[in-house]
Amino acid sequence: MTQGFSFDLHATDGKARTGVIRTPRGEIRTPAFMPVGTAGTVKAMLPESVRETGADIILGNTYHLMLRPTAELIDRMGGLHRFMNWHGPILTDSGGFQVMSLAELRKLTERGVTFRSHIDGSRHELTPERSMEIQRLLGSDIVMAFDECPALPADRTRIAESMRLSMRWAQRSRDAFGDRPGHALFGIQQGGLERDLREESAEALKAIGFDGYAVGGLAVGEGQEAMFATLDFAPDMLPVDKPRYLMGVGKPDDIVGAVKRGIDMMDCVLPSRSGRTGQVFTRHGVLNIKNARHREDPRPLDESCTCPACRGYSRAYLHHVFRANEIISAMLLTWHNLHYFQELMAGMRAAIAEGRFAAWEAEFHARRALGDIEPL
Ligand SMILES: [Zn+2]
């Protein structure tokens, strides 16, 4: 384990776990949800407001930051924490997944990926070595190994070849990362939905040795049932004493199902992106603020929520500012959504610590099944 970085499990309930990751920049209570700060900002939120929602750590995207404003510029400005004024831990992805989903004219070789920027068409290369360099320049606290992730469905041969390439890249990532006290490097398990490929990948990663392990290659189009079926076995293959991170997940019920299966960390753009499109998450499921039913409704989004949107504003107001395309709409709805996701995590942490996760989960599903409050 890297010096200055540790993970302590405090309690387990079934496969669900709660604990704390310690880093020089602060503690991360697990299970943890990481808001996504794609381009050096969690959109529509001040960093201190993100912290107020209960977030211990945020995620930054290597792909976006390397293209604009560049990792070298951020380094000259004192690193990503100082640049964006977030002083808690930051996890950065490796760039591999977003190159595959966003960049143009990609060319994949043993060495890495060359591509053209989706912003200005300029040519770039990402390799395990370059990804490690970029994440070092950014000053990331948790660095992700560079990997390749095929979209599902894909045939077994393609998934196996891709996984084995990712394992060779994992070794190169480890070598290039070197020894950096206070900074952690996580490996990424691949292998699609195939149990034996997941096992092969886990064994390869454990032989290399990482500070934490991600379950990669899920939430890429396979659906919740297939994802849960894979999570029924994939996390168990990873070391019990290291954090397990499920990348890019997800909806509240995905998150609950993942925690139930032994996942400690997650990230997703859903709460922040939805805040800009009028989709609101509450204990009662999802509502859309642009619907006419909210037009003269004086009630808050959720009467039990303590976020600024619910304490100070009616559904009628939130409906109005959304329809009028006012900036405060994205600010308030994003705050509410991030607050809801963090409350969800806090609720699970408490339930696991007290050995009542099953009862907590039953109540979570029962409340959602009731749906939003009746229209006035
Ligand atoms: Zn709220």
TrEMBL record:
- Can you tell me which residues bind Zn(2+)? 305, 307, 310, 336
Catalytic positions are: 93 (proton acceptor), 267 (nucleophile)
Entry GO terms, CC: cytosol
Cofactor (UniProt) = Zn(2+)
Give the family, as the similarity comment puts it: Belongs to the queuine tRNA-ribosyltransferase family.
Q: What is this protein called?
A: Queuine tRNA-ribosyltransferase
The protein's GO terms of the molecular function aspect are: metal ion binding; tRNA-guanosine(34) queuine transglycosylase activity
Q: Per its UniProt entry, what is the enzyme's top EC class, as one word?
A: transferase
Give me the comment on cofactor binding. Answer: Binds 1 zinc ion per subunit.
UniProt binding sites for substrate: 93-97, 147, 190, 217
- Which reactions is this enzyme annotated as catalysing? 7-aminomethyl-7-carbaguanine + guanosine(34) in tRNA = 7-aminomethyl-7-carbaguanosine(34) in tRNA + guanine
Gene Ontology BP terms = tRNA queuosine(34) biosynthetic process
User: So what EC number does this one have?
Assistant: 2.4.2.29
Its pathway, per UniProt, is:
tRNA modification; tRNA-queuosine biosynthesis
Q: Which UniProt keywords apply?
A: Glycosyltransferase, Metal-binding, Queuosine biosynthesis, Transferase, tRNA processing, Zinc
InterPro entries for the chain: ArchSynthase1/Queuine_TRR (IPR050076), TGT (IPR004803), TGT-like_sf (IPR036511), tRNA_ribo_trans-like (IPR002616)
**All copies of domain tRNA-guanine(15) transglycosylase-like, residue ranges:** 15-368
